[in-house]
Amino acid sequence: MADTSAASTAGTPDARNRSTKNVRLGSSTAGRLAETIVVTGTLAAQDQITASMKVAGRVDAVMVDFGANVVQGQILARLDPTDFHLRVEQADAALKQARARLGLDPDGTEETVVADQTPLVRQARAQQEDAKLTAQRMQTLWDQKVIPKSQLDSAQANLQVAESRYDDAIEEIRNRQGVLLQRKSELASARQQLADTTLYAPVAGIIRERMVSVGNYANAGSPMFSIVMVHPLRLRLAVPERGASGAKVGAPVRVTVEGDTNVYKGTLVRVSPSIQELGRTLMVEAEIPNERGTLRPGAFAKAEIVTSAEKPTVFVPAASVLSFAGVEKVMSVKDGKAIELHITTGRRNGDRIEIVDGLKAGIPVVLDPGNLSPGETVNIEE
Predict the structure, then answer these.
(1) SS3 356
(2) Do 63 and 110 lie in a common domain?
């Protein structure tokens, strides 16, 4: 008698369910995607500045340290100002003395005088007038044969001396005016040196290195701080020759860095005029805004340069694509059975993958197909 148990079991509903796989479907959708070039490079600071004192002195205070964020104009360090205050006082005293010698108010603001109105010139002019009158009287008496010739000669010589003294007085006033301007300049210089005892941040950035401590003697021009400008950052890239024609100034650039899921947007700002013969690459440079300072100079970055406007394309969910031994495919469903479609993929856009060839928009695709085989019966889950 034949054993019918196996045949009976194969026809049960449980056996039919085991031969049918449950699948979830996604859809291939039409979209638009710009042409891009993907290259890698290293982020670099916009610039690096060394801050130093303009005057020499003992460091009295250091306001910032390594790693500190600074804004332009922020105080970084100060020198002991004692000696510089004394120089200002000396220069101020010399200026007041120069003003007094010109007959000006020592604490006033006037800077020039009328030479003929100064006491020195008025005295010389009076002596000149007196000598002139005396010479004229002596000339009259000589003409009248009243005095000897020697008295006339003496009066005329005194007149020449008085005229010379008058000229000397005018010249002295001019010299004093020159000294006044010099003393004023010296005072301004002393005040500027006093102001220069405070070191301000020349740019906004981050302190990369501090090279001075309180108590150190700092020479004029010696480095005290190294500041890196981190906004915007530079990204220097080597574009392969085949994509060089699309790398133009103003092209958008999308940047990602290791360990950061954010996409940073920048702009291509500089393009080399020639292709490097050795590597057959075109050097370009992009600027990446970094207001919050989340990106760091020196980080390895992957950049996507947009070389043309968006074009129509087809996308599928990334979870639907299978790849084995260089062959790419997706699984679809027709008449309740799985079918295999060979495809050519392009770029990834988030959780979607571009399909260059092999699939049209609107065709359903199986999500997470796993080991699903062509011809296998499937049950579509809602």
Answers:
(1) strand
(2) no
Give the separation between CA 77 and CA 70, rounded to whole angstroms. Answer: 12
Q: Two tokens at 67?
A: 């790693």
Whether residues 350 and 238 fall in one domain: yes
CB atoms within 10 A of CB 152: 18
Residue 370 pLDDT > 80, yes or no? yes
Tokens at 116, concatenated: 């003929």
Q: Where are the beta strands (DSSP E) in 156-260?
A: 198-200, 205-210, 217-218, 223-229, 233-240, 252-257
Tokens linked to 376? 């296998």
Here the tokens at position 209 are 């290195």
Strands 233-240 and 327-334: unpaired
Tell me, yes or no, whether 258 and 338 share the same domain. yes
**pLDDT (0 to 100) of residue 19:** 66
The mean pLDDT of the chain is 87
Number of domains in the chain: 3
Is residue 247 domain-resident? yes
Instruction: Report the CATH number at residue 211.
Output: 2.40.50.100
In a domain, 11, yes or no: no
Instruction: State whether 246 and 373 are in the same domain.
Output: yes
> 15, 28, 2: which is closest to 363 by C-alpha?
28
- pTM score > 0.85 for this model? no
pLDDT in tens, 61-114: 999 999 899 999 999 999 999 999 999 999 999 999 999 888 888 888 887 787
Asked if residue 223 and residue 240 are part of one domain, the reply reads no
Q: How confident is the model at residue 350 (pLDDT cuts 50, 70, 90)?
A: confident
Residue 288: name the closest of 42, 79, 55, 23 by CA: 42
For the ranges 32-41, 60-69, 205-214, 363-372, which has the lowest average pLDDT?
Answer: 32-41
Domain of residue 168, residue span? 82-195
Q: Is the peptide bond before 232 cis (omega within 30 degrees of 0)?
A: yes
